[in-house]
Batch of 2 targets.
Target 1
Amino acid sequence: MPRVLALANQKGGVGKTTTAINLGTALAAIGERVLIVDLDPQGNASTGLGIDRKSRRVSTYDVMVGAHTLAEAVLETAVPRLSVAPSTLDLLGVELEIASERDRAFRLRNAIVKLHEAARLSGEEGFSYILVDCPPSLNLLTINAMTAADSVLVPLQCEFFALEGLSQLLKTVEQVRAALNPRLGIHGVVLTMFDPRNNLSNQVVEDVRQFMGDKVYDTIIPRNVRVSEAPSHGKPVLLYDLKCTGAQAYLRLASEVIQRERALQAA
Ligand code: ADP
Ligand code: MG
């Protein structure tokens, strides 16, 4: 099975999508076969990977309602070894549509298992990592991501309210672990949009390390204008400007993620 990481934080604008795109690209660059599942109705991960609305013929909405398989939604991107299952605004209505189904929390998990089985039967290599880009809410979509995941990767923005909401998120992870997915753990917390000239940024790093200990990755993603420009070109920052500090940080994060995975597998 691929390693499935849910990128979750119920706050918007903390770097979930940016991390999905660029961590995914960095993992692909070092040889992993990566699928990004866009589970946010806004579809920013799909757009940021250069997938225009017209090409989203099968979306994660279709997968969640059971009209199509995940394999049918998968599109290749400009990055070798990186694919995306795009989302559309239809996903906004999915929660109501599947609310009364018994398997409502397992839709994504079942779709991923089926994708893996199909790859195995046809002798294909399949994906080694699946990154799920969650919406900014602890709704049924995020629950589906956590139920499907081996672990949760939490982006936290280096700003004053960084820790606010984190306990709620951790509680949700606990609840999903207890009720739906005993495998679920916290992979790590990645601090994003760090500004070294801002004392507050430094304070936040200290506070988060105090609170989350070694769950916090050593790599900190700096605030970097190239990172925010890249999506409007439909490119990951690693393709847009490989040398910039943001791209380099995401490469370091990818190797840290892989190191942690190896340690988890060995344990
Ligand atoms: P989320 O998915 O959590 O809502 P995004 O990844 O979309 O957050 O990021 C929110 C905004 O911040 C976007 O406009 C994005 O381009 C910008 N951004 C994210 N990370 C960085 C960074 N390291 N440097 C500069 N801008 C960033
Ligand atoms: Mg997002």
Target 2
Amino acid sequence: MLVALDVSSLDEASALLGRLDGVLTGCKIGSQLFTSAGPAAIETALKRGFRVFLDLKFHDIPNTVAAAVREATRFGIFMLNIHASGGLAMARAAAEAAVKAAGDFGIPRPLCLGVTVLTSLDRKALQREVGVPTSVEAHVLHLAGLAREAGLDGCVASPQEIGLLRLAMGQEWVIVTPGIRPLPSGGVERKAEPVRLPDRRNPPLPTGGVERKAEPVRLPDRRNPPLPTGGVERGVEPVRLPDRRNPPLPTDDQVRIATPRRALAAGADYLVVGRPITGAQDPAAAATAIVAELGGP
Ligand code: C5P
């Protein structure tokens, strides 16, 4: 389990790590802390004995991403990520840069992950805002396949796609999942949803497929966005009365979430937990409770 150090200063990060010392062994440094404190944040975490996942989600032309991955590798972090949606050439450049940099600096190579679909996006946002006309699951699998083809080690995905990814990508594939929300005390875990392969009538584009003739450009009708090609209208979700023993998990801006236990059982390798720890009155107690639920850090 990795704590997301989503704080805005080195002092806050250092204080949080101090409180979590002895409870957790790893942390995640993302764009907020890195933009504010820079490499000193990584140094601080490493000095305190935490291993670091650098979550900067690089997404740029291959040459720039390769150069950024080289610099990130130099810090001695154990894991980093890029956006898999940056394409095959970009992902390949990242994977190759990590190998080369680790060799040049004589340090272990960091694991390189592809971010699939952000946990804050649901199907509607993916289709209407990002313009991807498939299901979230199909797109996650598509991007994970692309990441593997590029030589990356694994991917970042929401807890709800872990089972699917494990099935499709095998045991060696590293799966990191944010969007973790512990049950409120006294809450009862819901029954796990069965793992379903994505809808064939809404298939993802094949990786390594043959380029099709370009479609003529058509402006979309904003008031009536098209259904995905070949898609089938789904039924409206039935209205469910709230279950008092199963109150909905607090989600913040995350949409596709799960409890720590469920994410682990589904096959995640690393859980990233932010606000349930950083926003708790007693971060050490919150982290300890999750560690106990998982059976170890
Ligand atoms: O506070 P919370 O537990 O939601 O934090 C989740 C962390 O994981 C944040 O730092 C967020 O940037 C990160 N993350 C994510 N979704 C991804 C990749 C990373 O939420 N796909």
